[in-house]
Write a structure and sequence with these properties.
single chain; 4-stranded antiparallel beta sheet; 0% helix
Length: 52
């Protein structure tokens, strides 16, 4: 995940993801994270679904 990426909650897998389809947007990554990382710094924010 890159800093500034929109993050979504994947309820089926119980984790954050950058995949929008079928998931709920919960915030924005405030720092980059590698694929092997188990955490990502996130600003939780109510943001429009369109990303506008």
């Amino acid at each position: 995940m890159t800093a500034g990426a929109r993050l979504f909650w994947d309820n089926a897998n119980r984790r954050l993801t950058t995949t929008a389809t079928g998931n709920f947007q919960v915030g924005i990554a405030t720092a980059a994270a590698l694929a092997a990382d188990t955490t990502v710094r996130t600003m939780l924010a109510r943001v429009p679904a369109s990303g506008a």
